[in-house]
Design a protein that fits this description.
CATH topology of the largest domain: Rossmann fold
Oligomer: single chain
CATH class of the largest domain: Alpha Beta
Number of domains: 2
Shape: globular
Distance between the termini: 19 Å
Radius of gyration: 20 Å
Helix content: 25-40%
Length: about 350
């Protein structure tokens, strides 16, 4: 088997994980590590030696395992913040880390996992969501030695990968929870904005075909434009910025923030969604599925009716749609787990757990 495990390090979650009274020394810690495949073959036919998948875990690995998948370009700390982890990982919560072994891998192209900015730049193999899921599966099976998952759950890109998990490995999990996602191919405004994000960076002379010395200026402006256009929620933005002055303040704050991303990494990871399409194989999904979306999701507009027209193809699936309000934030609503924590807990309680969890 072509793999090795690099010992993880431990870091304490600095933020209090619960809005309730919770002693600081009882907050769960995060184990951090790497799994490395000596050779990995991508769907493009390209190969990479020593593909590295960085991952984080919470809890005891003897407990039922939960795979949690992040969004595009989303830092893992967003999943450890009070609005998410504080609502889901604490004692008695849906994903209580004393009862589950929570695994959060960084996808190919993200964080400390292998990515173009490691050195290959635009010569890095072209990857897609299917490659990401394959690498996650190998991490779980080969790296961590886990044969079954209690739950696969993901947000945005991770939500789309959750659909693929249910199709590629239908008996691997007890339950599936894709969030802020749909199974259909990228289309409409969602894909058009992604294309413009990529093209804006490539059109910047400073990009220099990926051989830049400094991050091209278009990276910041294109990313801010994309974020405002596709995440935040119409009602929420109007509530935060009811005047031009307040709207300018929000923009100025984003423009003043430092650039922490890499242009080539951006091009690769946003482009990796180009061939995503889980629709043709929906009937392969056998695990019970709870689909969590928000009514104001800019990237997955509910008014298209795409999702509601496809649910009948899945053996057991329920859509939980969060109503739009000044408290929701469009595509980013799922980072406020208060909107669905009780529904998730009830769903898991009603979903049978296989005994051979490892």
């Amino acid at each position: 088997m072509f793999f090795r495990i690099i010992s993880g390090t431990t870091l304490a979650i600095l933020l209090a994980l619960s809005p309730l009274s919770h002693a600081a020394n009882s907050a769960p810690t995060v184990q951090e590590g790497d799994w490395v495949a000596n050779e990995f073959t991508f769907n493009s036919g390209e190969k990479l030696n020593d593909l590295r998948i960085h991952y984080y875990t919470l809890g005891d690995r003897s407990k039922p395992a939960v795979l949690l998948l992040h969004g595009t370009n989303q830092p893992i700390k967003a999943l450890l913040a009070p609005g998410f982890a504080g609502e889901l990982f604490t004692p008695g919560a849906a994903l209580d880390s004393s009862k589950y072994f929570i695994i959060i891998p960084e996808s190919i192209g993200s964080g400390k996992s292998s990515k173009p900015s490691d050195g290959l730049r635009m010569n890095f193999p072209h990857y897609d969501y299917d490659d990401m899921v394959t690498a996650q599966y190998r991490l779980i099976k080969e790296g961590l030695g886990i044969s079954h998952l209690r739950l696969v759950m993901g947000y945005s890109m991770g939500g789309m990968q959750t659909w693929l998990w249910g199709e590629k490995y239908p008996t691997m999990m007890d339950a599936l929870v894709p969030m802020a996602s749909q199974p259909n191919e990228l289309s409409g405004r969602n894909w058009m904005m992604r294309r413009m994000l990529i093209e804006s960076i490539k059109a910047d002379p400073a990009w220099a075909q990926g051989n830049y010395q400094q991050q091209p200026p278009a990276l910041k402006t294109a990313n801010i434009m994309f974020s405002i256009a596709t995440t935040g929620g119409t009602l929420n933005y109007q509530h935060k910025a009811p005047t031009r002055a307040l709207a300018d303040k929000l923009v100025d704050e984003r423009l003043a923030a430092p650039v922490t991303a890499d242009a080539n990494d951006f091009i690769y990871i946003w482009g990796s969604s180009a061939n995503y399409n889980a629709l043709p194989a929906l009937n392969r999904i056998t695990a019970p599925m709870l689909i969590i979306n928000s009514a104001d999701d800019e990237r997955n507009p509910v008014e298209t009716g795409i999702l509601s027209g496809e649910l009948h193809k899945i053996k057991q699936a329920e859509l939980f749609l969060i109503p739009a309000s000044v408290e929701t934030s469009g595509h980013g609503t799922m980072m406020s787990a208060k909107f669905y924590r009780d529904k998730l807990r009830a769903f898991l309680a009603a979903t049978p757990q296989r005994q051979d969890k490892k």
